[in-house]
Amino acid sequence: MDQRHTAMPARTPVPPAPADHHTTPRPSPDAREILLAIADRLASSRPTHTMDEAHRRALVLTHTVDRHGYLTTEADDLAAEVLRHAPPVRPDITRGEYALLLRKNAGPEAGQ
Questions:
Q1: pLDDT greater at residue 80 or residue 15
Q2: Whether residue 11 has pLDDT greater than 80
Q3: How sure is the predictor about 102, in pLDDT bands with cuts at 50, 70 and 90?
Q4: Cβ–Cβ under 8 Å, residues 35 and 87
Q5: Interior CA angle at 108 toward 102 and 112, to 5°?
Q6: DSSP for 6-63?
Q7: Tell me, what DSSP letter sits at residue 103?
Q8: How far apart are the first and last CA of the chain?
Q9: pTM
Q10: What is the pLDDT of residues 19-53, one digit of tens each?
């Protein structure tokens, strides 16, 4: 069969997403509180020091375990959610700069 004469099926064009469209849902109230608590800690303790990925994960683990206990499903689920909203650490970002990103990702309180 000659492939040159086979018609391609018509495709429906997909409109582009708006510039302010967010695909990640807002954090839950618990995750929001933890993001803000971590941001407060980073901004108040050595804000000009460099942030790193190990500290990001350690802070998330510490805060979620404090809230739900060690090796609990609730702590694991909350840690996973917080990590989705806490972006990976860029090289040479300070703790204070990372705190600003966490506050932004925490978003406004529910209902605002």
A1: 80
A2: no
A3: very high
A4: no
A5: 175
A6: PPPPP-PPPPPPPTT---SPPPPHHHHHHHHHHHHHHHHS-TTSBP-HHHHHHHHHHH
A7: H
A8: 61
A9: 0.76
A10: 444 456 899 999 999 999 999 999 999 999 999 99
Q: State how far the Cα of 35 lies from the Cα of 106, in Å rounded to an integer.
A: 6
DSSP character at residue 71: T
Q: Which of 102, 74, 72, 82 is nearest to 28 (CA)?
A: 82
46: phi > 0 → left, psi -120 to 50 → alpha, else beta; which? left
How many whole angstroms separate alpha carbon 33 and alpha carbon 22? 20
Query: Across the strands, what pairs with 50?
Result: 94
Tokens of 6: 């086979």
| Nearest alpha-carbon partner for 90 in 50, 43, 57, 60 | 50
